[in-house]
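ugh ok fine here u go
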Amino acid sequence: MTDHGFLALAPQYTTTSELLSTSARRRGMDVEVLPAHGGAGAALGRRGGHYYGGPAFAARVVDALEVALLEPSDDWLATLPYEFTRRRIAMATLGEARGLSRPAFVKPPSDKSFPAAVYTSGSCLPTRPELSPDVPVQISDVVTWAAEFRLYLLDGEVRTGSQYATFGRLDAERLDGHRHEGAVLEFADDLLAACGGGLPSAVVVDVGLLTTPEHGAADQWAVVEANMAWFSNSYAADPDRALDVVLRSAGPRAQMAERDRRFCQKVRVSKPRQRMLSP
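structure:
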């Protein structure tokens, strides 16, 4: 029998982990729900592992599983041309962000150390003792998204996608057959042709329709953010095609492509920090 490897799941149940595990079993893969305590459990020493779950739990088990976790660089969004963001975005430290004197959307680029939200000024940012002033943050102009879509990308192509929100409210709907499908895919094609080389071979990119056009211009499409496929909600995306992306995004280190090494947590190359937006 062909060895299809196995999918290791973090112990916390989610609807996405259920959908992905069903798809994995359908293609002949074993599925292992890892123990909450005790590391990789029965998966320890097994070859051909893939992972789906949160980054905090992943840090405890990926070495034992010999899995390479691919994730976009923290500064990818901040380095995109304005035509793809339609707003000012920059990287800074939390300490620098506290100097902001205007409303801004502030978030940790890759973890959830504090809530991603619109803060009326830098003085409103969290001040918990464990939050170092040197923690990197992403700062962007405040905009309104009429609709937001999650795209699963593999080797520079959209494999599947889903609308996940309208005007900030959860509203999952398949991309296939959606009234905005053509516009979403056209924007994604343009984005990937211009900037796809700055992303891992397997990644999730969120895009959206802005409702704050400048000078009376028509609504415009823009990138919301990029995320790790191995820790993303699939919403209404096709789970079989989403699984293709997840498996590549968190698969055996021995099979990792050379181009992806800079996006692996273990060997990721740090990029120069971008200049902060003026307060």
